Amino acid sequence: MQQKLSVTALQAGYGDVRVLWDISLDVGPAELVCIVGSNGAGKTTLMRCLSGLLKVSAGSIVVDGKPMQGASPADFVRAGIAHVPEGRRLFSAMSVRDNLLMGAYLRTDKAAIAADLERVYAMFPILATRRNQDAGTMSGGEQQMCAIGRGLMAAPSLLLVDELSLGLAPRAVELLTESLRAVNKSGVAVLLVEQDVMNALELADRAYVVDHGRVVKSGPAMSLVNDPAIREAYMGLS
Ligand SMILES: Nc1ncnc2c1ncn2[C@@H]1O[C@H](COP(=O)(O)OP(=O)(O)OP(=O)(O)O)[C@@H](O)[C@H]1O
Ligand SMILES: [Mg+2]
User: Fold this and answer.
1) Which of 16, 132, 162, 189 could, after both became Cys, cross-link 86 (CB 3.0–4.6 A)?
2) CATH assignment of 1-80+156-238, given 3.30.43.10, 2.40.50.100, 3.40.50.300, 1.20.58.340?
3) What is the pLDDT of residues 126-143, one digit of tens each?
């Protein structure tokens, strides 16, 4: 079966500083895969490579069988990849609605865009109520809904989410987790980076553990939940 995303021996960094040493991973169509790792492990750097924001120095990224070498961020969006960045990065002085529509900037299918906007509003009713409010004045949880909604407005087949739950109250995390599960159930593959390792492993089909820019462990999420080394290093459990 062809993978949605296939990364092989990827290396990347900033200037002379190498951050990712040898990353290989796959995401199948409609699979939900998570990446866990300590602060500074290189998770965000990897997500930036996977959306064309950062050029890789070696290795390959293949989407639906097509190599993405030299591809621009817009090319990655056209290939079906939408990126919900760490820290959300909304346009704070723009309305919720306009932020959502930014996600559809490469699309021209007006009717389908309108239908997708309604779908996002149905998934997160608070965004519909607050559609004319400046995004910067929304709560953290609401802003994360808006960021995910903006990603969905690109009509992706793979959604990259960098830190779903960081800094949010349990109720908001629960709601966002459920919505991500629903997105995935509708056939969209998801690659999730998450600080809350237990939450991530409960949600995901498979997981990769990244440490100092390398994949140090991978497998079915459930097997990692029960891995003593993972429990000790990332969940503070023994
Ligand atoms: N723009 C940049 N310029 C130089 N170094 C950077 C830049 N962005 C990140 N780094 C460095 O790359 C390394 C990996 O950072 P990255 O943000 O990818 O980690 P992370 O796994 O996402 O961490 P966190 O869990 O804290 O979000 C860190 O050492 C960081 O200082
Ligand atoms: Mg990060």
Assistant:
1) 162
2) 3.40.50.300
3) 999 999 999 999 999 999
